[in-house]
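Q: Got a minute? One more chain.
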Amino acid sequence: MRTIELRGDEVILIDQTQLPLRLVRIKCRSAEEVAEAIEQMKIRGAPALAAAAAMALAITAVKSRARTKGQLLRELERAGRRIGRTRPTAVNLFVGLERALAAARSAADVEDVRKAVVREAEAIAEEDVKVNRKIGENGAMLMEDGDVVLTHCNAGSLATVDYGTALGVIRAAHSSGKKIEVIATETRPLLQGARLTAWELSREGIPVRVVTDGMVGYLMAKGMIDKVVVGADRIAANGDAANKIGTYSIAVLAKEHRIPFYIAAPTSTVDLKVKTGAEIPIEERRPEEVIFFRGVRVVPKGVKVFNPAFDITPARYITAFITERGVVKPGELSKLFKS
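A: Always. Here it is, folded:
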């Protein structure tokens, strides 16, 4: 199921705020509209944001009336800055922008710039699907028949161009004939697990149960979880990883109960320029996401709210990273980048 596509001078994407009640695809006709869709969580997930960023520049190039390469590059850089302000934590967004801009800068003239940016955006999307399937294959080998696997937030097709990272591992294991059951945390405050993960898995006939975020420790203590598989938005060189808020707590609980804790992510999510998790910027979102639930106020007026979207899981709590280039322990990340 494609989450996002480039069609001519439009970016077509699934509006994830409408799920699970309605499957709605919307059209973005400018970089500004793509930026707003990202900010409003109509599209989310680190790999999907890489594609969205590049596609935003592609439609900017296609629609531009610039007559020179220099003029068009300035337009693209301006659009890139707007996209770059949307979500600071997910490194893939910036990877997508830089790849599209690099393609533009290396083009010969204004028409070549247009073609190069479109070509790069399409390449990023196709690569994402292939990478996710390879992540799935590598991770499926770690899953055993009968496993109950806990996942947090949504790292499925909806968080990528297609197939998914953490859910890609589950999909691949399921497709291989292994009986896998999934426990999905609801993932407050926007309920990506309850709304999106459960929706994806139920559509494919993969058994899934939704639990509240606060139930994880109880389930682990009762021996009801065999493995944990989540995604990531940025991974530091030392193996610390940023993911949806609540991931750190789950990792600590998994360590306490001797449950393997895996992160499934493409190597593009590894940011070698960032030494440790302390250097990863953490996005703080609007307090209204916590104050209101589906338009109904659930926090008393005058009460302050803190709403960080991500937390950092230290490398010592991570069993291994599942990538398209193999499965490695946190201290072995550098091996993924050796030719």
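A: The chain has a mean pLDDT of 97.
Q: Perfect, thanks.
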